[in-house]
Every structure is written in structure tokens, then in C-alpha cells.
Design brief:
The protein is mainly α and about 110 residues long. The protein has 5 helices and no strands. The chain has helices at about 15-20, 50-60, 65-75, 80-95, 100-110.
Length: about 110
């Protein structure tokens, strides 16, 4: 991984954006997600495979292990028990590192 401009070095790789925000029945293309003309930050990923396969891998990783648990804590409605649970998991969630490349995240979080 290479480092970008300080405070601007965390652009989420586009396959993750598509996987997180679009309906799973859609087949997005990279052309639908153009970067701004003047984009200071450099992408952090090293693409492996087609855009479609990377989106599929991201969708799979979002449903596995610690990533799925984190998303449940983020997405589920806030209740008193959810609040306490979020405090309980805050340290581990802060230390959670998810690979920029979706296929690597699948290897990291999804059992074979």
C-alpha cells in the first residue's frame, strides 16, 4: 500500500462503494463512478480482476465475520443495549483493518 496526501489518503475503493450502496441485483460498471478531474488523494487499492468480480467480492466480504458484525453495529437502530454494545466493541472496532482490495478482504474475513 502506498501513502497519499496527509488527511486525504483514505478514498474508499469504488467496488466497496458499489457493494455497500447499490442493490445486489444491479451490475454496476466502473464508468458509473468517475473520479473528479482534480483528485488529490491516490487510490489505495491495487485492482485484481474485473470491476464486477471486485464488487461481488466486496458484497461477499460485507456479509462475513467481523465486517458483518461491525456493519450490524453501525446500521441497526440505536437502542440502550446497542449503545452499550457499541461501547463494549469500540476498541476492537477501532483496530479492525479491512483490506482495500475486496478479494483480500474475502480471504481475511470469510471462512473457506
Amino acid at each position: 500500500m502506498h501513502r497519499g496526501v496527509v488527511a486525504h489518503e483514505k478514498p474508499l475503493p469504488i467496488p466497496w462503494v458499489a457493494a455497500r450502496l447499490l442493490d445486489p441485483k444491479t451490475d454496476p460498471t466502473a464508468a458509473e463512478f468517475p473520479l473528479p478531474t482534480f483528485f488529490v488523494a491516490r487510490p489505495l487499492d491495487y485492482p485484481t480482476g474485473s470491476f464486477a468480480s471486485r464488487v461481488d467480492a466486496a458484497r461477499r466480504a460485507l456479509d462475513c465475520g467481523d465486517v458483518a458484525a461491525l456493519l450490524r453495529r453501525v446500521d441497526d437502530p440505536m437502542t440502550p443495549s446497542r449503545f452499550i454494545g457499541n461501547l463494549w466493541h469500540a476498541f476492537d472496532d477501532t483496530r479492525l483493518r479491512i483490506s482495500a482490495e475486496p478479494i483480500d478482504a474475502v480471504r481475511q474475513f470469510c471462512p473457506s
